[in-house]
Specification:
This protein is an alpha/beta fold. The chain contains 11 helices and 11 strands.
Length: 317
């Protein structure tokens, strides 16, 4: 009997170390075509030959990433189903929704934060304010006269806008749009004066003079926009404008699979050509964190976003 169990244990160990044994799914919590989807497909193309198995990217948008997250939470925990999502899923949604069909902490094992993004506060070029100090003065002189766009209650631009209002003591009017792709065009068209947007989205419009940059999040200025000051250096470090993309698997997935996914993904992120052209040049800060470091970061990020949600008063059904 002891021999029999030894054989079973050896087979189990072999199976774990042999991961993957079948095609791997990367479930993306957003529609095709966006930055996170593009990155998922680029990673999938490189991971497939490294793993010797097809890597299929499956888009499951809906309900502010809840559809994809719930599907992965209920999938077989064998490491062959990976969730690729943003900070909205684990840092914001638990504080935004009274109920979720999964437990964000209990049901998932964080694998790695891939990249960090810091958003810009951008304005219509005709706005008579060229920097944050002038913007705050204008807002105080004309309370309620300035609007800012977001892509919904509790979205990153909404939380950043409400935090800026709170810390600067100003009154800005929140105008939620139905999608992330509508906020910057709304500023360009003059429907609103302000919004928060990523560097990749903003850069072409900045170069064309259709919008102007006021400030950016993060601890230091972006190398792509060195002339744009950070909220922190301007005295508003609490204005969080960051987002991130990360990988997760169901909580009971084999540790060997988690380690392999992290190791092979990080190797791709460290490829100099891929890192520069596909990430750095697009305004992404490359991270590739270890699972244990990602767990620590998630706790701090969740606490920070909880404060922002309370200040914003945002709620979701």
């Amino acid at each position: 009997m002891r021999f029999f169990f030894s054989i079973l244990l050896c087979l189990f160990c072999f199976a774990a170390h042999a991961w993957p044994t079948k095609p791997v799914r990367i479930v993306v919590a957003y529609p095709p075509g966006g930055g996170i989807d593009v990155l998922a497909r680029q990673l999938g193309e490189k991971l497939a030959p490294a793993w010797g198995q097809p890597v299929v990217v499956e888009n499951k948008p809906g309900a502010n990433t809840i559809v994809a997250t719930d599907a992965v939470a209920k999938s077989v925990p064998d490491g062959h189903t990976i969730l690729m999502t943003s900070d909205a899923t684990f840092s914001i949604n638990p504080h935004l929704y009274a109920r979720l069909p999964y437990d964000a902490q209990r049901d998932f094992a964080p694998v790695t934060m891939l990249v960090l993004l810091h958003q810009l506060l951008v304005a219509h070029p005709a706005l008579p304010a060229g920097n944050l100090s002038e913007l705050i003065s204008l807002a105080k002189a004309k309370p309620g006269s300035l609007n800012y766009a977001s892509y919904g209650s509790g979205s990153q631009p909404h939380l950043a806008g409400e935090m800026l209002k709170n810390k600067a003591g100003i009154d800005l009017v929140h105008v939620p749009y139905k999608g992330i792709s509508l906020a910057v065009p709304a500023v360009i068209a003059g429907e609103v004066q302000l919004t928060f947007a990523g560097i990749a989205t903003s850069m072409p419009q900045l170069k064309a003079g259709r919008i102007k940059a006021i400030a950016i999040g993060g601890a230091q200025r972006s190398a792509l926009l060195p002339q744009v000051p950070t909220f922190a250096e301007l005295g508003y470090p609490e204005v969080e404008t960051h987002a991130w993309f990360g990988l997760f698997v169901p909580a009971a997935s084999p540790k060997e699979a988690v380690a392999r996914i992290h190791r092979d993904t990080r190797k791709i992120l460290e490829e100099s050509d891929f890192r520069q052209k596909q990430l750095v040049d697009r305004g992404y800060e490359v991270v590739g964190s270890r699972p244990e470091d990602f767990v620590i970061y998630l706790k701090k990020d969740s606490e920070s976003r909880a404060r922002a949600v309370r200040i914003s008063g945002a709620k979701a059904d």
